[in-house]
Structure formats: C-alpha cells, structure tokens
C-alpha cells in the first residue's frame, strides 16, 4: 500500500506520537489547568510543552500568544469572526480552501466587503494585485501559504511587507505548510497564523491553533466561544488574558500530547531536512508524470516553488475512476475531486470534475514514486 | 523563629505558571509547582514555590515577561 494522501492527513506518524498519546491515556489522563494535584500538573506540563514547541517552530517569542484549537478551520474562523466587523474590507485569493472561503462568504452576508484577487492558472499570486485591491476600509489580507490543490507557494513575505506598509493584518492559513516550510512570524510579517496538527506537523487529528502576533489589538478581538478556563473562576465574564480568552472548555490534552511529540520530532530533524526530502520526491514525480503523454499536470510544476502536492488528470478518464483504480489495482491511496476548494479548481480550469491529487510526505520514498509513475503509465496505455 | 523560608507566586492561569516555572529553571532558580496553600486562593489551583532568599532574582525575572500575577506571598 502506498499512502499519497498526506495533504488531507499525514500517515503514518512518527512512532513517538502514538507512544506519547498512549502514555497520556494510561498514566496521566488528568485535566490540565483545572486542579493542583500531580497528575493535573503533569497534564498541564504536556500542554505547555506543546505550546513552547509550536512557538519555537514558528519563532514566536511569547508562547502565551498561541491559542490551541481543534484544527485550522477553527483557527481561521476565530481570526475572521473574532476580528472583522461589518463595513471592514478583506482581501483574499482565488486559491483558498473552503476553510478560509466559507467563513469569509458567511461574513460577507453580514456586511463585510470581500475582494477575491485572481491567481494565475498555475496558482501563483502577484503581490502587486493585492496592493491594488487595498481600499480605505481594508483591514486584513487573508491567504493560504500553499495551495492544497496544486501546491503552489504564495509569496507570503512580500505580502507581509505590503500588509505592514498599509497597516493591515495578515492572516495566513498554514494548513499545508506548517512543518515543511520555514515560517517566521516576525520576518514574514505574519500577524495571525492558523495551523493544523494532523498534516505536515505529523500530529493527531483534533489539534491545531492560531498564533496571534503583537500587532493584533486584543481588545478588539472577540472570542467565538466562552466558558470555563480554570482561571478567574470568581468572574462570570470571560478572562481577557491569553491564551485563556480564546481557550474555553477542557482542551484536547490527549491530542496535544501527540502534537507535543510530533513537533519535537520535527524540531529535532529540522524543517529543512523534511523539505529537502519532499523536494526530491516532488521533482521525481513531476519528471515522471511529465514523461507520459496524456497526463496533464497543474500548478507551477517546479519542486522548489511548490509543496509536495501534485494535481493531474489523465486524458479521457475521470479523476474518480483513476482514484478508484489506483486504490483497487495498485494500492495507491490518493484524493480525487475538488479537495474542498472549488475556487482553486475554477482558477486552474478543472471545475467541476476536479483532479487526481498526490500528496506526498516525509515517509514516502523514491521507490513509491516510481511505482506510482509506472501505475499511471499502465492506466494510460489502456486508454489508447 | 517564624521567619518564612519560602514564597509562592500566584497567577491566574496554569499556562502562565508553567511559563514562569520554565523561566526560573532557565535562570537556575530553584522552584516547584505546588497546590495553592489553603490560606491563599487561586483558580488554577497551582502556584510556584521558591526560596524566599531568591525573591529579588524572581522579581527581576517576572519583570521580563508580560504575565500578570496575583502576587507573591510568603508562606
């Protein structure tokens, strides 16, 4: 079996992830931050350790400015719903996942103005077009870091400079890039960064978070859920300090035990080493698919300018048929269709049928890539 | 004879007390997370105990971070 669906969820995980989670369930189990006994302390330490590890990964000086959420969707919803008010103008791109696009479209119904800046058919974005879209009431630029459909990396650092120049907030959806591309909140000019634990951070599902930069006005940032925090229990009002303001209810400490292990695993290896392996695999796959006539590949088709996510189609065959046959006849698991991103597929010209997507990860090998290329070659021969 | 040997830092949140603990350890200041003593009160149930003799160093450390504390109490 070959797992090429890492863009949806990475698999397998480093063994330390399941080990840390089993240890938590079997030996710790207590509620972090709700009591003072030794198991509560141990549980609290694990959650705190995860916070520090994430802060180190994204070079965030203050770990208290990391709010854990259940995934990147919740993180983006928090940033968008918590900060935007009717009359505000937001700029986004035509390559967004629905985790960004749907909350924005929902807010549009409530009086927020939205500009969707078109990307090229390869998924690239001209920062100049972002700057041209700025209006007097623009407050935020909200973008993905890399496309979940074609892998194209957006020029976040340049857009960060534009955001600073015009005093706008930059919200980045790092669902596909956290752990595989180097991200520096300060250097890249990012004010809000949403991440998920279960993709390229190699952690469990149900973990994610929002990093809140120093330029974000906390007084104007409303929580989207309120409740028990284990702090200021004498008050019936939500505490104002971070991270408690945005972290109500018992956290997913089990998941965070796994995320703590996986982020430390990444920090030990280094993002660059992971990236370098993925670049090699990506280029190998691109070269192999390019050598087969009848295969159309989408995106920039350059391993250095994209992440290890490759979308393609085979002449005269539907993506769903290819997906099914890759699974049943070759044991290759991938994702076909629209990948929760109709905007991206409209941009690259593959709406509504979609594409076949191979999402490679750190645990894939060159042999697996070669096997997949040979499988596609066999499927193509049949078409002729 | 009744002189306290220890003091505790009370904060509002477990995340905060964990952050302070990490900082003190980095500065080689001996400390321990303990349940909040009965005569004091704190929500998160946890506070950080340190040697009273280190108070000056601890205060200096706390001034370096933006964490609101409930106070430092001798126990």
Primary descriptors:
A: 384 residues; seven-stranded mixed beta sheet; four-stranded antiparallel beta sheet; 11 helices; B: 75 residues; alpha+beta; 2 helices; 4 strands; globular
Structural commentary:
The complex is a heterodimer of chains A (about 375) and B (about 80). By secondary structure, chain A is an alpha/beta fold. Chain A has eleven helices and 13 strands. In chain A, the strands form three sheets. Chain A has a seven-stranded mixed sheet, sandwiched between helices. A four-stranded antiparallel sheet of chain A has the order 9-10-13-12, covered by helices on one side. Chain A starts with a strand and ends with a helix. The model of chain A has no long low-confidence stretch (mean pLDDT about 95). Helix content of chain B is about 30%, strand content about 30%. Chain B has helices at about 15-25, 55-65; strands spanning about 5-10, 30-35, 45-50, 70-75. In chain B, strands 2-3-1-4 form a four-stranded antiparallel sheet, with helices on one face. The longest helix of chain B is centred in the N-terminal third of the chain and has 13 residues, at about 15-25. Classes of the chains: A alpha/beta (about 375), B alpha+beta (about 80). Chains A and B meet through helix 2 of A and helix 1 and strand 2 of B.
The total strand number of chain B stands at: 4
Q: Between the first and last Cα atoms of chain B, what is the distance in angstroms?
A: 14 Å
- Outline the low-pLDDT stretches of chain A: none
Helix-strand sequence of chain A: EHHEHEHEHEHEEEHHEEHEEHEH
**What count of helical segments of chain B does DSSP give?**
2
Total number of helical segments of chain A? 11
> Whole-number average pLDDT of chain A?
96
């Amino acid at each position: 079996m070959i797992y090429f669906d890492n863009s949806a969820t990475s698999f397998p995980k480093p063994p330390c992830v399941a080990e840390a989670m089993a240890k938590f369930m079997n030996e710790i189990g207590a509620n972090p931050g709700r009591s003072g006994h030794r198991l509560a302390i141990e549980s609290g330490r694990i959650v705190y350790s995860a916070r520090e590890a994430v802060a180190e990964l994204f070079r965030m000086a203050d770990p208290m400015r990391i709010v854990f959420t259940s995934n990147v969707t919740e993180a983006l919803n928090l940033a968008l719903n918590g900060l935007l008010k009717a009359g505000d103008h937001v700029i986004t791109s035509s390559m967004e996942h629905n985790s960004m696009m749907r909350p924005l479209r929902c807010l549009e119904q409530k009086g927020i103005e939205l500009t969707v800046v078109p990307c090229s058919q390869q998924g690239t974005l001209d920062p100049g077009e972002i700057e041209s879209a700025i209006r007097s009431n623009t407050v935020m630029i909200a973008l993905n870091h890399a496309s979940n459909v074609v892998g194209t990396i957006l020029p976040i650092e340049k857009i960060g400079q534009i955001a600073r120049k015009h005093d706008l907030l930059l919200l980045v959806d790092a669902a596909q890039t956290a752990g595989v591309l180097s991200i520096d909140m300060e250097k890249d000019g990012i004010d809000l960064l949403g991440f998920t634990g279960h993709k390229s951070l190699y952690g469990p599902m149900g973990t994610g978070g929002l990093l809140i930069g120093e330029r974000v006005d906390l007084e104007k940032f409303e929580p989207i859920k309120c409740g028990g925090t284990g702090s200021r229990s004498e008050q019936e009002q939500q505490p104002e300090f971070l991270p408690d303001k945005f972290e109500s209810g018992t956290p997913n400490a089990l998941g965070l035990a796994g995320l703590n292990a996986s982020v430390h695993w990444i920090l030990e290896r280094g993002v660059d080493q992971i990236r370098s392996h993925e670049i090699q695999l990506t280029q190998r796959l691109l070269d192999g698919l390019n050598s087969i006539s009848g295969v159309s590949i989408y995106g920039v088709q350059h391993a250095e300018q994209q992440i290890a996510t490759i979308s393609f189609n085979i002449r005269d065959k539907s993506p769903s048929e290819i997906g099914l046959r890759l699974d049943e006849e070759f044991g290759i698991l991938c994702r076909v269709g629209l990948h929760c991103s109709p905007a991206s597929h409209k941009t690259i010209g593959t709406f509504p049928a979609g594409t076949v997507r191979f999402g490679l990860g750190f645990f894939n090998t060159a042999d697996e890539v070669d096997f997949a290329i040979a499988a596609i070659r066999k499927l193509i021969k049949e078409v002729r | 004879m009744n002189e306290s040997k220890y003091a505790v830092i009370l904060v509002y949140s477990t995340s905060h007390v964990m952050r302070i603990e990490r900082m003190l350890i980095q500065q080689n200041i001996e400390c321990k997370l303990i349940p909040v003593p009965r005569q004091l009160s704190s929500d998160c149930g946890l506070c950080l105990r340190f040697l009273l003799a280190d108070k000056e160093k601890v205060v200096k450390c706390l001034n370096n971070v933006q964490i609101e504390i409930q106070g430092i109490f001798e126990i």
